[in-house]
Amino acid sequence: MVQSVELLLDDRLDGHVREQWESLRVAGIDSQARVRTESNRPHITLFVAESIPREAEEAARAAVSGVEVPVQLGGVVLFGGRHATVGRLVVPSAALLELHAQVFSALAQCPGIPAHIRPGEWTPHVTLARRVPADRIGAAAIAAHVTPGDPAGTADRIRRWDGTAKQEWLLV
After folding, report:
1. Contact indicator for 107, 60 with CB cutoff of 8 Å
2. Please, are residues 49 and 118 in contact by the beta-carbon 8 Å criterion?
3. Rounded to two decimals, what is the model's pTM?
4. Which DSSP category does 163 fall into?
5. What does the alpha-carbon distance between residue 17 and residue 153 come to, in Å, rounded to a whole number?
6. pLDDT tens per residue across span 138-154
7. Confidence band of 1 (pLDDT split at 50, 70, 90)
8. Residue 71 three-state SS
9. Residue 64: predicted pLDDT
10. Which of 52, 82, 150, 164 could bond 3 through an S-S bridge, CB–CB 3.0 to 4.6 Å?
11. What is the DSSP secondary-structure string of 87-101?
């Protein structure tokens, strides 16, 4: 399973994304709302690897202490082919790109880093639904209901997610 470092959204943005999860669920799309665990929360994945050793985690913690990043949600984005991941883009501010670069630099020696997470390849987004069949992508995009003036906010907490143990803890 994967190990990750994730940026958590403030309460307002978190609530907005959860409303979109629910809209997708009501439209018959298997959204993130289906996951009923305390650790399931809207987030921006900053880093992914097969494993993150404790000493690397400490280096990442030191690199990002006191972080507060403005977050502006953008349009709907699709990843994949026959089955897509549907998300909301996050406008890549200088502060967000710098944070991502700092986290990546601190963890660059971890094994199994996918190419799409590297600086210059990374697409900041918040996942709304996974494994959406091709014939439901249009319905998913409509149900995500992106509107002018969608809320902006901040992110000031960074968590570690251990996909094997299904556990989370805060780095910052």
Report:
1. yes
2. no
3. 0.93
4. T
5. 12
6. 999 899 877 777 789 99
7. low
8. strand
9. 86
10. 52
11. EEEE---HHHHHHHH
DSSP code for 165:
T
Question: Which CATH number is 3-170 given?
Answer: 3.90.1140.10
Give per-residue burial for 2-17: e unless 16+ CB within 10 Å, then b: ebbbbbbbbeebbebb
- CA-nearest of 68, 64, 15 to 42 is 15
Query: 53-70: per-residue pLDDT in tens?
Result: 999 999 999 888 888 999
- Mean pLDDT in the chain? 91
Burial grade of 18 (CB within 10 A; 0-12, 13-18, 19 or more) = middle
Nearby residues of 63 by Cβ (< 8 Å), 6 or more positions away: 102, 103, 105, 106
| Residue 4 to residue 56: CA distance in whole angstroms | 12
Spatial distance between the Cα atoms of 146 and 63, rounded to a whole number of angstroms: 34
Give, as one character, the DSSP assignment of residue 153.
E
